[in-house]
Amino acid sequence: MIIIQAMSTETTPHTASPLPQSQSLSGVAALPAWGVIRAQGADAPKFLHGQLTQDFSLLGQDQARLAAFCSPKGRMLSSFVGLKLAADDVLLLCPADTLAAMLKRLSMFVMRAQCRLSDASADWSVWGVTGEPASGPSLAPSPWQVARAQEQTWVRLYPAAGVERALVVTPAGSVAPAGPALALAVWDWLEVRSAVVPVTAALTEALVPQMLNYESVGGVNFKKGCYPGQEVVARSQFRGTLKRRAHLFHSGSALAVGSEVFHSDDAEQPCGTVAACAPHPSGGFDALVSLQLSALQSGSVHAGSVQGPALRHDPLPYELLADV
Hints:
Elements: E1 27-30, E2 34-40, H1 44-49, E3 64-70, E4 76-86, E5 89-95, H2 96-107, E6 116-119, E7 124-130, E8 146-149, E9 152-156, E10 165-171, H3 184-194, H4 230-238, E11 244-251, E12 260-263, E13 272-279, E14 285-292, E15 301-303, E16 312-314
Antiparallel strand pairs: 1-7, 2-5, 2-6, 3-4, 4-5, 7-10, 8-9, 9-10, 11-14, 11-16, 12-13, 12-15, 13-14
């Protein structure tokens, strides 16, 4: 049985699954699971600023924003990677399975604002680029930086498994980014290993942003003005009430997004939710699990029930911001 390691200040051996050769992690994949909402008009950035967890009023054309759209209770309904095409023209890249509902909900709040929202998925293609091709056209090394080359808009993402990654947006029908073909399954696995994952329909209203580590990866701005759920999100951060974070795990058996995990000491109540998962190229499954922090102290974590497969806890690739 694979047991989760108790947290300790001592160094312990880590038996991670072997990674494939770096060459096989380098390439370009079309991402059909991404959709595009377009916000146009003089008030478009201001409108999005008032609805999402990140600052869109000060968004420059050389930056992107990871942001969530929350319910009044602070639970994430969906997430977006936002970027500006022009001062009054913003693209929101989001999971395609949440797009229709989010477009409808956002449109309810436009009112008198000079902002037109539309489903622009048919007008744009979204690509995932990894490895050497992800260096991009003079793309800055830090996440959420933007660079452009001809019709391609590049967004630097967090790396995964030691591999650089980027999203590339192009007009539909235009030339794909240069590079060898990358299997979509490899991109999906790297997305999980980056520990920065989108909020898909299976997670709608399940988590506040910190439960998916969004405050630690540029997805929440605590200095901006109000947005739906802002008070709940801020209170979770600044009153020391956050008891759940996202952590990486490995399983020998298949996992599913939205499924529950259980701690060995409690067969009745789940201690976490699978937020993203994908097959590991060398066998088994990797997952990002939103988990009660107490579950990391001792015992073991299991998929589905306490009798289910035990999960191995793997380290995150970035530091978590402390709640204060």
